[in-house]
Write a structure and sequence with these properties.
About 45% of the residues lie in helices and about 10% in strands. It is an alpha/beta fold and about 325 residues long. Strands 3-2-1-4-5 form a 5-stranded mixed sheet, sandwiched between helices. Strand 4, helix 2 and strand 5 form a beta-alpha-beta unit.
Length: about 325
Amino acid sequence: MRFLKRCVLIDLEVAGQNRIVHVGALRGDAKFEQRNGFGMPDGLAGFDRFCNGAEFILGHNILNHDLPVLASFNPELKLLNLPVIDTLYLSPLAFPENPYHRLVKDYKLVRDSINNPVADARLAGLVFTDQRESFSGLIRRHPDIPAFYHYCFSSACSAGKFRDHHGTAAVFEIMGVKPVRSKEDAFQIFKDAVLGAVCPTQFENTIPQYLSDPDARPCLAYCLAWLMIAGGNSVLPPWVRHRFPDVALILKNFRDKPCADERCPWCSDVHNPVKQLHKYFQYDDFRKLPDGRNLQKKIVSQGMADTPLLGILPTGFGKS
């Protein structure tokens, strides 16, 4: 793929306390590999020269692993200034139904064999190729969605010179995604995409504050990707929860926190215990006690509101 020739693909093998034991990189048809010899200040000089001239640095989980390790050895490495494309960050957007799309190390013939950084760098390139194919299909089907992703990452920059999202935004730019002009347009794209999948009131109350903060916008991209397939084979990767903790908070507000509006189409259905009882168990109502009290309904209502509760019912009245 032409774009990969503009990138240097890297991977490190690290042991112990950030001890680099093996470095591998690919750039077009050229290969770089080095074992040990990283203790001296110039131990990574050859690696840095190999990366010189590349437009992007690409790898799998390099924002949280490889690049911090390299910076701890030599913060003056020129490669640390390159825009970063991390396939780990792209996977939940490209494959929301299978965000664990990861390196399949088919070159390993025996379990627990030593990693091969050059092979892992090559596999990161293959993963990225799959991701671009997925984004191409998304652009054809729903062009506003990748446009929203681009908007979320284009102006976001986390702390640290190599922890920016310029590389992620560049992926969508190179693919010809039409830029979103304003946060108002971004708001409308998100709103139209999640119609019927969230509480409209909670949406209106939550989204503006995140769109107003460029550094907080990336979490909205992961929220949208998850909501596009919510209710099906969907899972939010733990690393997303850790790196972008507001994602879980936003989704909880959108879907699990009922509003006070009785006309709300989402809350009047999803947070109505009787409707959910009929939907999943085909019963028209909960079982009542002889005195008319409906403790089953109260218990389920408390559970749906995420409220701790101890429920005590007589034998035969539906504890199970």
